[in-house]
Amino acid sequence: MEPTSRPTGLGTCDDCGFAPFSDDVSTSRDTAWAKVRARIEGTALAAEQLAG
After folding, report:
1. Which residue stretches of 1-52 are H helix?
2. What is the pLDDT of residue 34?
3. What average pLDDT values come out for the chain (52 residues) when binned by 10 residues?
4. Distance (Å, whole) CA 25 – CA 29
5. How many C-beta atoms lie closer than 10 Å to residue 46's C-beta?
6. Residue 8 to residue 33: CA distance in whole angstroms
7. Are 47 and 12 in contact (CB under 8 A)?
8. Which pLDDT value is given to residue 28?
9. Residue-wise over 7-18: b if at least 16 C-beta within 10 A, else e?
10. In sequence order, which residues have a C-beta less than 8 Å from that of residue 38 and are 6 or more positions away?
11. What is the biggest distance separating any 2 CA atoms in the chain, rounded to whole angstroms?
């Protein structure tokens, strides 16, 4: 299948279950940063796959 956009235009969303309130302690900082790292790594992997 032909990609519909360039890998350089690929992006991801921050909406991964984080509460927008500073008093919510349901997610640790370590977990939050692990999710951010995984999102960055996943975006890079998808870009590589789209680039062929």
Report:
1. 29-51
2. 87
3. 61 67 77 86 86 76
4. 9
5. 13
6. 24
7. no
8. 81
9. eeeeeeeeeeee
10. none
11. 45
